[in-house]
Design a protein that fits this description.
With 276 residues, this protein is an all-beta fold. Helix content is 1%, strand content 52%. β9 and β10 form a beta hairpin. It starts with 10 loop residues before the first strand and ends with a strand.
Length: 276
Amino acid sequence: MVGAPAQDPGIRVRRGISKGTGRLTPISRAGRLVAPLGVDAACPAKLEIGMRSDAREPLYADMFVEIDRPLVASRPMLSSYLPPGYELGAKLLVGVPPATPVGEYGLRLKAGEEELTVPISVVDVGELDNGGNLALHRPVTASSQHTGANYPLCSVVDGDRDSSGWAGGNGWNDATSRVWPDTLDIALGGPRRLSRVDLYTLDTERYPAAWLGLRDWDVRVREDGRWRTVAQVRGNTAGTVRSDFAPVTADAVRISTLASNGPDNYSRIIEVEAYS
């Protein structure tokens, strides 16, 4: 049964490196998670977790997930068949209810006799270390939103640029095929100095940007209550486009989409980032 599929479709099993301990070992891909307070509940904080089997025989392994309240974890446990030396990984979503006090919390992963604790820092979105990305976790509105799958607006500012989560919670798709323009607005929480906007459109091996990605759009900013265009992109076939422009002071960014590649002509955006 080596290589048998995981029972949970959200779990990925792959060959790892056995440490020869004879135990199950919990895994976290990050030593600490920062969970912003006050963001859209459709875009919780994300963490890759899992476990590795160093047992001498194949087994069905369980790992239990515990989290300090009032934080909420998307799953209470992981279960999967694991041959020796194999490990599994799964995405854990951490919800932060609106009344949660800012502070430090804990996530505990327990597999067999082993336990791993991952600290969680709940911070106000205004105090978040955004790495210079002024759009990160800021409020988003759009001209329309497709309801045929999971395309939350907040996912275009959640810091996840990976197109592999398309239609599963990462990326926006408008609801008006072949109708243009579409608009995607990001409020920056007050006047901010801007000189660059990066846009990530749908781009995977199965769905390359040259086939289904965004082709034409304008980058606009709101200055003193008025929108003006600061950059234009035409004929794009790449998954990522950086637009630089003369510095401005604005309180919002708008992506005004004009055309996409492919026959259905929807607007598909994975992430938007704004920098000074």
